[in-house]
Design a protein that fits this description.
The chain is an alpha/beta fold. About 20% of the residues lie in helices and about 45% in strands. It folds into two domains: about 1-50; about 60-180, no CATH class.
């Protein structure tokens, strides 16, 4: 994905656009630059997926805002929480390292056309607020297919006590809450 943010990518696009305008004005050639460029980008994504160069699992530490596109990643939020996006991939948010927090820790996971997994350990105060649209939510307390909201609270979660609050949204994807022993 770094290629889409590089100067080579956008420079090539601007050069092709300029050449298209010149060829149209001088020789009356009509080159569909946008469709051609979009096709090249799709072929590039496909080749990267086939070769597996974009499918190496990543490990993201801390509370930054990483995004995953066409990839697999495992996130470990820090004590300040974090926001994580997964699009066309798989992402796992492992909150086991947070233990019993001194204050509420907010973690957000947004999944679009992919799978998100929240991993916690037994005895850890965690509240997962999940919502799904054209997807599903699977928690130790039950499943929610299709549309709707679901609240899962671990056995150790008590009102008024600090906890890890995971807000997760799945659109055309799935969300799994897994409690480890």
């Amino acid at each position: 994905m770094n290629f889409l943010c590089s100067g080579v990518f956008w420079g090539s696009f601007v050069v092709l656009l300029g050449l298209s305008i010149i060829l149209k004005e001088l020789f009356h050639w009509d080159i569909p630059v946008f469709r051609l460029f979009f096709g090249v980008v799709l072929v590039g994504f496909g080749v990267r997926m086939i070769l597996g160069t974009s499918c190496r699992p990543q490990r993201c530490e801390g509370g930054s805002h990483p995004s995953v596109l066409f990839n697999n990643a495992s996130f470990s939020p820090g004590p300040e929480g974090g926001k994580y996006d997964v699009v066309f991939g798989q992402g796992q948010v492992d909150v086991t390292g947070l233990g019993r927090p001194e204050k509420d820790v907010a973690v957000r996971l947004d999944v679009v056309f992919g799978e998100g997994r929240v991993v916690l350990k037994a005895g850890q105060p965690v509240e997962v607020r999940g919502s799904a649209a054209f997807g599903g939510i699977q928690t130790p307390s039950g499943n929610l297919p299709g549309f709707g909201d679901h609240l899962y609270r671990s056995a150790a979660c008590q009102d008024g006590k600090p906890r890890v609050i995971v807000e997760a949204h799945a659109v055309f994807g799935g969300l799994v809450v897994e409690e480890l022993p």
